[in-house]
Amino acid sequence: MIFETHAHYDDEAFTEDRDSLLKTLSENGIGRVVNVGASPESCQTTIELMEKYDFVYGALGIHPSETAALDEALFAGLREQCRHEKCVAVGEIGLDYYWQEPEREIQKKWFVRQLQLAKELHLPVVIHSRDAAMDTIEIMRAEHAEEIGGVVHCFSYTKETAEIFLKMGFYIGIGGVVTFKNAKKLKEAVEYIPMERIVVETDSPYLAPEPNRGKRNDSSKLPLVINEIARIKQLLPEQVEEITWQNAFQLYRMEKVY
Ligand code: NI
Question: What is the rounded CA–CA span in Å between residue 217 and residue 148?
Fold first, then answer.
């Protein structure tokens, strides 16, 4: 079975066929899905999916690009949401400097607060970090992220940066980008990262793997990601599937029920 560690099925891209699509995932070998919240609204819709589908769990948090709207009342609401029995992580949280907004100080403030929330609730974190490696690492070190644990999702940095996250005990989320022909740096990082620290994800509806690049993504495309990791690691796809399945249960500290 395949463990989808990061998807956004609450996204409006799935409005037309969300239920029919989710019902077909198990036929396509997808055994677990962690749906990831990114705003107060999507945390609520993530909870609705967690409650509707046995195989869907949730990560709840505020994406850096959504932090401008955060205040103490919304943050208190997030804390309550994170106490849900099927909430397995705080996320996605982090820094995104690809976009100019919100200003970096605001992103940093809520990244720190959400790391502290994860520590308080004994939950791992799902980190989103784009064009912001140095500040992400600095904040994670200052907040002792090695005591929190989690995953750096949709990893996009070099193998040298991967080494730093690995030393903090983090898992690395690999998605469709690894199948892109021009993703040389990422393929090198995958070669370097130990197999026991890799988990697979789609970030659906985004980042569809080749040959679906640019189209809407969903978890049934994960075999394309697994095949490419297997090629790089010189393993069989079935081995990558099994190891990443085990890794994801460790990452999200879930009981193994087969
Ligand atoms: Ni995401």
Answer: 30
Show Cβ contacts of residue 104 under 8 Å, excluding neighbours closer than 6 positions.
Answer: 95, 97, 135
Closest CA to 178 of 155, 161, 196: 155
Q: The whole model's pTM is what?
A: 0.96
d(CA 151, CA 200): 11
What single DSSP character describes residue 17?
T
- CA 67 from chain center: how many Å? 18
- Distance of CA 84 from the midpoint of ligand 1 (Å): 20
Q: State in Å: Cα 34 to ligand 1 middle.
A: 11
Q: How far is the CA of 235 from the centre of ligand 1 (A)?
A: 27
Residue with tokens 């677990």: 32
114-to-34, 140, 193, 209 alpha-carbon distances in Å: 18, 11, 26, 30
CA 55 to chain centre: 16
Ligand 1 centroid from CA 6, angstroms = 6
Buried b (16+ CB within 10 A) or exposed e, 73-93: eeeeebeebbebebbbbbbbb
3-state helix, strand, coil in the chain (%, to 5): 50, 15, 35
Q: Model confidence over 169-224: pLDDT tens digits? A: 999 999 999 999 999 999 999 999 999 999 999 999 999 999 999 999 999 999 99
Q: For residue 258, what pLDDT is reported?
A: 47
Which residues are found with C-beta within 5 Å of the ion, ligand 1?
203
Cα(61)–Cα(66) distance, integer angstroms: 10
